[in-house]
Amino acid sequence: MKRFFLFFSCLVSSYLLNAQDWIWVQSNTNNILNSVHFPSIDTGYIAGNYGTILKTTDGGNTWLTLNSGTSSPLYGIFFTDSENGFAVGNHHILKTIDGGQTWIEKESGWGTKNAVYFYDNQTGYVAGDIGGYPCIYKTTDSGETWLQKTVNASYDYYLRSIDFVTPNIGFAVGFLYTGNPDFENHSGILKTTDGGETWNEQDFGNINARLTSVYFLNSQIGFIVGGQYHINGQDKGIVFKTINGGQTWQSTLIETSQRLESVYFINEQTGYIFGIFGKILKTTDGGFSWSQTDTIWTFFYSVYFSSIDNGVAVGDNGSIIKTDFTNQFSHVIETEYNSYPNPTNTYVNIPLYNFTEDLSYLTIYNSWGQVVKHQIINTDFEKVTLDVSMFEKGIYYYKYNNLKGKFIVY
User: What are the φ/ψ torsions at residue 362 (nearest 5 degrees)?
Assistant: First the structure.
């Protein structure tokens, strides 16, 4: 993704954001961070300018700097598992097979690569532009070789994001800033129905918005976001949603004049959008309505959730913020429904109550917010008994059916 430097810096310390949902995390860099991806709950990677690649193995609490072997900007990153991944940028497609310790150039040549996505371990795609004209590359051998595919576009724009609904159906979005105030938002939406071999423009009408991110929660539900949608002399954010795998889309205007950069949904109801000038929007009704949870004076370009409770967003000046796990459990109330015995070093009983469904989910976290156990529970029973004899000593939290509790292993 093409970035512009800001002439101000943000205060990255122990400062806690207003809504108490996100906290700053130390990145040890001032470089712009463009993309974040987690192949597992604990392991994640970030790509940024000047060849920056960061890695975490504790869910995003701490980050180490890796040597990418390039000083060029990297705009996208994607890992198929904790060891095998790709970073893309100006004239680069880099691959690692050892968790980012070493990177090998797999394709250079002309063009800027802004986004990378893998549908499975073998099949992946890179989206960007060559001289302003949209281009897409495809691999079917785990990124060893890449071939440029057919893009039928009627005008120039660079692609910013790519995602697939099924092995055959995928979407890519982007825009071109022309500098012309009468036609400044030159956007495109491409669709493939043959596994990325050919891409054709979708007719969404005169969008007049800068489209930046496409994301599918599952095979049916997907979102496209952008901003600076010019209407009646005002700029607004815009969100497109599909509930039928991209066959049809409905749009929602957002009351913000700033561009929306990245969208991620953790389930069908709850999703987040991050944007420039620190806009953080949240929905709890599947995207029907959006509320602003925070404004942080920095640009954010990418957000990713490694679990339902663990999200990380990245942006300018080395900015990293993550969900504040400790705050989520700061109001655990001691009640008659407490787990027992507590403390324990053998087993713990967690009482079950107040269910309307036959099955639910129980999630156990350690004090870092990492998921240590996630299982379906039968709500016909009065309790669930867990063997914690192999758990490390410390405080553990649990959550189910909007109930939260904790126990101690000694």
Answer: -115, 130
Residue 6 near residue 299, CB atoms below 8 Å: yes
CB atoms within 10 A of CB 231: 11
Q: Does residue 405 fall inside a structural domain? A: yes
Phi, psi (rounded to 5 degrees) for 115: -150, 145
CA 194 from chain centre, in angstroms, equals 26
Structure tokens at 174: 């982007």
Mean pLDDT score, 343-359: 82
Is 144 in the same domain as 49? yes
Is residue 159's pLDDT more than 50?
Answer: yes
Q: Are residues 156 and 204 in the same domain?
A: yes
Quote the domain boundaries for residue 401.
Answer: 347-409
Does one domain contain both 302 and 198?
A: yes
Q: What is the pLDDT of residue 185?
A: 61
Contact 308, 328 (CB under 8 A): no
Q: Collapse the DSSP code of 243 into the 3-class scheme (helix H, G, I; strand E, B; otherwise coil) and give the result.
A: coil
More confident residue, 16 or 334: 334
pLDDT of 1 higher than 70: no
The total domain count for the chain is 2
Among 257-261, 267-271, 292-296, which stretch is predicted with the lowest mean pLDDT? 292-296
Q: Whole-structure pTM over 0.85, yes or no? A: no
Q: State yes or no: cis peptide before 341, omega within 30 of 0.
A: yes
The span from the CA of 219 to the CA of 54, in Å, is 31
CATH at residue 376: 2.60.40
- 3-state SS class at 325: helix
- Residue at which a domain ends, from 325, 360, 386: 325
Q: Hey, is 168 helix, strand or coil?
A: coil
**Looking at 5-14, 86-95, 101-110, which range is the least confident one?**
5-14
Please report how many Cα atoms fall inside a 13 Å half-sphere around the Cα of residue 357, on the Cβ side. 7
Q: Which residues pair with 283 in a beta bridge?
A: 271
Last residue of a domain, one of 291, 325, 359: 325
